[in-house]
Amino acid sequence: MSKVRATNKRSWVRRGLAAASSVALGASMVGLAAPAHAAGCSVDYQVNSWGSGFTANVTITNLGSALSNWTLEWDFPGNQQITNLWNGSYSQSGQHVSVSNAPYNGSVPANGSVEFGFNGSYSGNNDVPTSFSLNGVTCDGSSDPGGGDPGGGDPGGGDPGGGDPGGGDPGGGDPGGGDPGGGDPGNPGDKVDNPFAGAKGYVNPVWSAKAAAEPGGAAVANESTALWLDRIGAIEGNDSPTTGNMGLRDHLDEAVNQANGEPLVIQVVIYNLPGRDCAALASNGELGPDELDRYKNEYIDPIADIMWDYAQYDNLRIVNIIEIDSLPNLVTNTTDNAGGTELCDQMKQNGNYVNGVGYALNKLGEIPNAYNYIDAAHHGWIGWDSNFGPSAQIFYEAANASGATVDDVHGFIANTANYSALEEPYINISGTVNGQMIRQSDWVDWNQYLDELTFAQDLRQELISIGFNSDIGMLIDTSRNGWGGPDRPTGPSSSNDLNTFVNQSRIDRRIHPGNWCNQAGAGLGERPTANPEPGIDAYVWAKPPGESDGSSEEIPNNEGKGFDRMCDPSYGGNDRNGNNPSGALPNAPISGHWFSAQFQELLANAYPPL
Ligand code: BGC
């Protein structure tokens, strides 16, 4: 995982869409097919507007002979301006737009389709274009080859007429009875508002045994931790660190057993996107950047199939935590940011994070007892104004991609596998020291936030204001953000020097808030709890304590994991952590593997104490 952010945040307000976040309007969805006349092509243009921003998903159907490359052109009727586009490249001059294929989607067979999407900004009306041309020929073909929605759009779900490309549930159907019309059934209505309320938490026997085997570990071995499906093989149980030799089905059987007829939550981390962990190396995965089809067919579909088999268990609540770190990386770690990476550029350009997350949300959201929470980084990553709003926008984009809708999103999770403190009891972020604002301190560095609790609560409001449902709830991963032990401050510093005051008062004792790997001095945080604060569905232990964030030196492995120097205690840092030492513990195994020394330190520094 990367859990990183770039520096120079203050110069980042560059995306037109950022402004939309302050305009609280419900999303409107308009579907329109281009007028039909002669053969050649047809275009389905779906747009989702909010305030001054919008997302459009465009499907071109080729009604002529096979193409090896394509360019679609149109004129916007108003002042719409494209701000970023995926699955193609674009140019815009005034109202005229030209979009050409990406290197990987130029071939379109006769009667085949290809999709791309984009974000834009506008003012006034956001009318849809009335005419398109493909490779210079006006698209006058049948307006709706997929049997979609010629008239009134698709208010329920945004399935752009073509049904469920590639996804389908061929033969098996949805055992729960959902999805009768081919679209997205939305919230089936029988989901509870907060799945954690009144429910026990699943104790993963694989993690529990490792924790119990450590000295003092029995004190926490019965806590609920999440099950990470960190590769395709983990679905069947392949000795992956958190699933062990139990497959997803075995864990769900065990969950039914532990539930014993009462409500129980099992948390499953969906973590296998193509080009995973684009800004770091420690959790790179098995799928290459372009392997979205494998993600859908070999990863999400089998998981959904298994979960559907447990849909009958009303008391079993399956919380799916969706794709840690992925979407925020598209905001802060592309190369237009200091320290960005080309892989993040690629993942933004090819749309596979957005479309993969959308696909997961759509497929898993249909399951009546499954609850999707999207990963939302943490305050030390997207707490600056310049990336807070844009991150919310990209979550919204993903929640409307690949057939998903906001009804597939139950909430968001902050701080997954990170170390950011829940609260900083001795520092007021709006305060001053000797006439200088706390925000100016080196530690805060103009961030709007110092802690996860207010960050998560404010992010929730922001998400609701741009179109997410008003009953979404937040989770916060408190597995390793306790910061107790003998070095924990017991009150505010008495220093008059701003940086000394902040450094002596803060309970988060990392060298820099951008440090994310096996942090020395950390402790277990709040034990998992439902409904701890307004807007917060639960404190959870998403990262199983004791599982490494990454190896401190190069260790060959067959999991796709690289060596990230942010896990090397001798590393002096990079742009994303202000060129500070990594603060990582030595002698760490590769990510996900058991790290006994870290577990012992987490026990010793637990806060609240054990
Ligand atoms: C690793 C996964 C592991 C997870 C939980 C991630 O950093 O990449 O393999 O399952 O942590 O420990």
TrEMBL record:
Enzyme Commission code: 3.2.1.-
Residue intervals of the CBM2 domain: 34-142
UniProt cross-references to Pfam families, sorted A to Z: CBM_2, Glyco_hydro_6
Keywords: Carbohydrate metabolism, Cellulose degradation, Disulfide bond, Glycosidase, Hydrolase, Polysaccharide degradation, Signal
Location of region: Disordered: 133-197, 526-591
Listed InterPro entries: Beta_cellobiohydrolase (IPR016288), Beta_cellobiohydrolase_sf (IPR036434), CBD2 (IPR001919), CBM2/CBM3_carb-bd_dom_sf (IPR008965), CBM2_carb-bd_dom_sf (IPR012291), Glyco_hydro_6_CS (IPR001524), TAT_signal (IPR006311)
Region forming the signal peptide: 1-38
Biased composition (Gly residues): 144-186
Protein name: Glucanase
